[in-house]
Structures are given as structure tokens and as C-alpha cells.
Design brief:
Blueprint (H helix, E strand, L loop, with lengths): L2 E9 L2 E10 L6 E8 L2 E9 L7 E16 L4 E9 L2 E3 L8 E3 L2 E4 L2 E4 L7 E8 L4 E9 L1 H16 L14 E2 L8 E9 L2
Antiparallel strand pairs: 1-2, 2-13, 3-4, 4-11, 5-6, 5-10, 5-12, 7-9, 7-11, 8-9, 12-14
């Protein structure tokens, strides 16, 4: 069942601020399968949406890249380690992606169950990697998704004097910020 959380902050010198959110249901089982392709892998994701509730999802897939290179000034071999979060899909129901030659891409793919409440999701994402990936599918409270989408829009217009101002979403009265929660399904996949 869904749980409602509420936060109230008060101080004698300031107005009381408060926020609340409904915690989404746990995701349940997520099925993953993959095929090797020229670009890396196609990862098929399948899961059942929880019926009769508003669900907001975020998909994050990353891999760690380790590169060695020789620095002639230091006369030493250096190692560079970083995480790659870039993923693409042919599906167009994600909110925060950009179209890259027919692929919808981003670092986290966010979507809602508005037209698909209680149905089974099945989609494929592309990842340019051939070794190990970290998969995370989050089920967010509504405020977190609204905040992330508004932050993306805010960051896209930063420094553009001709852009329309973007108000970053807040779910507090008499204050700013976000109060929310999420469930996460996480799995490390060693690709063989």
C-alpha cells in the first residue's frame, strides 16, 4: 500500500514550511536480457507497472571506463577512471531525452505510466559497452521527477539571455526544495 509522508519545519522567527509526498510502491521483479551489437549491447528491460497509482520511473545505466596513457612530461603511465552514464533508445516516451538521429538519448531516462497504468513495460536501450554495466531502475515520488525535469530545463537555458526563465520545481510551501522518496532496483551485469 502507498504511504504518505509529511515534513513540517517551524521556528519562532520564521514562517512554518512544509511538504509531503506519496511513496510509490516497490518495483518488484525486473527482467533484463541483452544482445551484443556493433555499437556495444542492446539491453531489453521488462517489468510490470503497479496498477491504480501514479508511477514515475528513472532508468540509469553506467559503466566504469579505465584508460591508461603515458604522460611524457611526467615520464609515467597514468590511469584515468570515470563513469559513463550515456544511454540511448528508439522509444519516444521518455521525458528528458534529446533526439540523436532517431535515437532518444540521455544520462537518465525518465518516464511516467500515464497511459500505461498497470501494464507491462518492455523496451530496449543501447549502451556502448562490452564488459560490465550497473543497471538501476528507480520508482520516484512525483515531486522528484518534476524537480529533475525542471532542473534539466534550467540547466539547458543557463547563460542564454534570450531563453524564457525556468522556475525550478519545489514541493514546499513557504520555502524551496524537494521532499520525496523512491524505490530502486539495482543489478550489476557482467556481459559474457
Amino acid at each position: 500500500s502507498l504511504a504518505n509522508y509529511r515534513l513540517v519545519v517551524s521556528h519562532t522567527d520564521f514562517e512554518t514550511t512544509e511538504s509531503s509526498f506519496i511513496m510509490p510502491s516497490n518495483l518488484g521483479e525486473v527482467e533484463l536480457s541483452y544482445d551484443f551489437q556493433a555499437h556495444g549491447i542492446d539491453l531489453k528491460v521488462e517489468f510490470n507497472d503497479q496498477p491504480n497509482e501514479v508511477n514515475n520511473y528513472g532508468l540509469i545505466i553506467n559503466n566504469t571506463i579505465i584508460q591508461k596513457y603515458y604522460d611524457y612530461e611526467l615520464d609515467d603511465t597514468l590511469i584515468s577512471v570515470y563513469d559513463n552514464y550515456y544511454i540511448c533508445t528508439k522509444e519516444s516516451f521518455f521525458f528528458n531525452t534529446y533526439n540523436d538521429n532517431g535515437n532518444f538519448c540521455g544520462t537518465e531516462l525518465i518516464f511516467k505510466d500515464e497511459d500505461r497504468d498497470g501494464s507491462r513495460y518492455s523496451f530496449t536501450v543501447e549502451k556502448g559497452v562490452l564488459d560490465t554495466i550497473n543497471f538501476k531502475l528507480n520508482s520516484y515520488s512525483e515531486g522528484i521527477v518534476k524537480h529533475r525535469i525542471s532542473m534539466n530545463k534550467y540547466n539547458e537555458t543557463a547563460g542564454n539571455f534570450f531563453a524564457e526563465p525556468v522556475q525550478v520545481y519545489s514541493n514546499f510551501t513557504n520555502g524551496f526544495g524537494i521532499f520525496g522518496g523512491y524505490w530502486s532496483y539495482e543489478k550489476e551485469l557482467v556481459l559474457e
